[in-house]
Design a protein that fits this description.
Blueprint lengths: L9 E7 L2 E7 L5 H22 L2 H6 L5 H8 L3 H14 L2 E3 L6 E3 L3 H17 L1 H5 L1 H6 L3 H4 L4 H15 L1 H11 L3 E5 L5 H9 L4 E6 L2 H13 L6 E5 L17 E5 L10 H16 L4 E7 L9 H14 L7 H10 L4 E6 L5 E7 L20
Parallel strand pairs: 5-6, 5-8, 6-7, 8-9
Antiparallel strand pairs: 1-2, 3-4, 9-11, 10-11
Helix pairs in contact: 1-4, 1-5, 3-4, 5-9, 10-11
Length: 374
C-alpha cells in the first residue's frame, strides 16, 4: 500500500507461522502529542474517581483495599476492582507487594495537579460551554445554568495542591499563627495543612456552599481535627456586619473569593478588608490573598490566563483587578505594606499584606478603578 506522505518510524522482521511478516509503526514521537494523550487518559479516570468519592480516600490513605472502598463509596466491589485495575494500567496506582491493596504511584499527585486545570475549564465550568449562547445573550443564564460549586472547589484544590498551597503554607510556617482563618475555605484542605504545619494552631473556615462545608467538616473529622477546626456556613458579605469569626486571627487567608465581589460590591470588599485589618492589627498579623489578575500576556501564562479572564469577565460578569488595583484595594482597607508574588498557576498571584496598629487616625484612601484598564 502506497504511503508516500507517511514515514514508518520503526521496522522489524518477524516470523509468524513460518511466514515473514513486515511490522512497523506510523506512530510519531511528538512530545506534545504524548503529553496530550497521557493527560486525556488521566483526566477522565481521575474525574470518575472524584465523582465517586474515591480520590480523597486515595489521597488520605497510604493503601486502600477494594472491599473497603466499595463499602465506602457504595459501588459493587467488582466495579471498584475494575476501576482500580484501570488506574494501575494508566500508572496512577500500583499494587501493594501483598497483592491485596493499592497505593498511589509516584505520578499520581502530578497528574492530579495537571488534571485540575483541565477539569476546572471543561467540567467545573461546563455550563459556560454547553450554554454559551444563553450566557452571552440571556441575562438569567447564571440562574438557569449554574456551575456546581462542589466541582469548582474540588478541581481548584487539585490545582492549588502544587500551584499555590505550597508557597502559602511556607508563609504560614514562617508566621506560625495561633489562629488561621480561611475565607472561602472549600474542602478545608489549606486549613488542614496549616494545622499540620504549625503546632498548637487552630483553624476557622468560612464558605457559603452547604455541600462544600459538609465536605470540609467530614475532612476534619476523618483526620481527628474536629475540635481544632470550626466551619461557618455563611457569606463573605456577612463579615461586614458581623466580623466576629475574624477575632484572634494571626493570618486571614482568602483564596479566589474577593474577585467575586467585583465590581458591583467593591465597597463591600473594602469593608471586609477593613474588618480584617482591624482584627489582624491586634496581633500584628497578615492578610494573604490568592487571587486572579487579568490577561497576563507572557508566554508562560497567556493561554490559561486568557481562558480564566474571559470566563470571569463574560460569563460571571466579574472585573479582575490589575496588581496595582489589588494594592489600592488593600490600601483602602487600611493595609500599607503589600507584597505581590507570582505562582505556577497562570493568571494567579499571592498578595500578602501586614496589619499594623496605629495611634494615628488618618483617613483611609478611597479606592477608584483604573479607567485606562476598561
Amino acid at each position: 500500500m502506497e504511503r508516500s506522505n507517511v514515514e514508518v518510524q520503526e521496522r522489524e522482521l518477524e516470523t509468524v507461522e513460518n511466514r515473514v511478516v513486515f511490522r512497523g509503526t506510523y506512530a510519531t514521537t511528538t512530545p506534545r502529542l504524548r503529553d496530550a494523550t497521557d493527560l486525556a487518559g488521566c483526566v477522565s479516570l481521575l474525574e470518575l474517581g472524584a465523582r465517586l468519592g474515591l480520590i480523597e480516600t486515595l489521597r488520605r490513605e497510604t493503601s486502600v483495599e477494594p472491599e473497603r472502598l466499595a463499602a465506602e463509596i457504595a459501588v459493587p466491589v467488582q466495579k471498584v476492582r475494575a476501576l482500580l485495575h484501570a488506574y494501575v494500567a494508566a500508572g496512577l496506582l500500583v499494587r501493594d507487594p501483598d497483592g491485596k491493596g493499592y497505593s498511589r504511584s509516584e505520578e499520581f499527585d502530578d497528574y492530579l495537579y495537571f488534571s485540575g486545570y483541565v477539569l476546572w475549564g471543561l467540567s467545573a465550568c461546563r455550563p459556560f460551554i454547553e450554554h454559551t449562547r444563553d450566557y452571552l445573550c440571556a441575562p438569567k443564564a447564571p440562574q438557569s445554568h449554574p456551575r456546581d460549586g462542589g466541582l469548582v472547589a474540588v478541581f481548584s484544590e487539585w490545582v492549588g495542591s502544587k500551584a499555590f498551597y505550597p508557597p502559602v503554607l511556607g508563609m504560614i510556617r514562617e508566621i506560625a499563627p495561633k489562629r488561621f482563618i480561611d475565607l472561602g475555605c472549600g474542602t478545608a484542605k489549606l486549613i488542614v495543612g496549616a494545622l499540620g504545619a504549625v503546632e498548637g494552631c487552630d483553624g476557622v473556615g468560612i464558605d457559603l456552599d452547604p455541600g462544600v462545608c459538609r465536605l470540609a467538616r467530614m475532612s476534619a473529622a476523618a483526620r481527628g481535627l474536629s475540635d481544632r477546626i470550626r466551619i461557618y456556613e455563611r457569606s463573605l458579605q456577612s463579615l461586614v456586619e458581623d466580623p466576629s469569626p475574624l477575632d484572634g486571627a494571626d493570618i486571614v487567608h482568602a483564596g479566589f473569593v474577593f474577585h467575586d465581589l467585583l465590581p458591583e460590591e467593591t465597597d463591600v470588599a473594602v469593608a471586609v478588608f477593613r474588618n480584617c485589618h482591624k482584627a489582624l492589627s491586634e496581633t500584628g498579623g497578615y492578610l494573604i490573598l490568592t487571587e486572579l489578575v487579568p490577561y497576563e500576556s507572557n508566554e508562560r501564562e497567556r493561554k490559561f490566563s486568557s481562558l480564566v479572564t474571559y470566563f470571569h469577565m463574560q460569563f460571571m460578569q466579574r472585573r479582575l483587578p490589575r496588581p496595582s488595583e489589588w494594592a489600592a484595594l488593600l490600601h483602602a482597607g487600611g493595609f500599607q505594606e503589600v507584597e505581590i508574588f507570582e505562582v505556577d498557576m497562570p493568571g494567579a498571584r499571592i498578595i500578602r499584606a501586614k496589619a499594623r496598629k496605629s495611634d494615628r487616625n488618618d483617613p483611609l484612601p478611597v479606592f477608584a478603578w483604573d479607567k485606562s484598564s476598561e
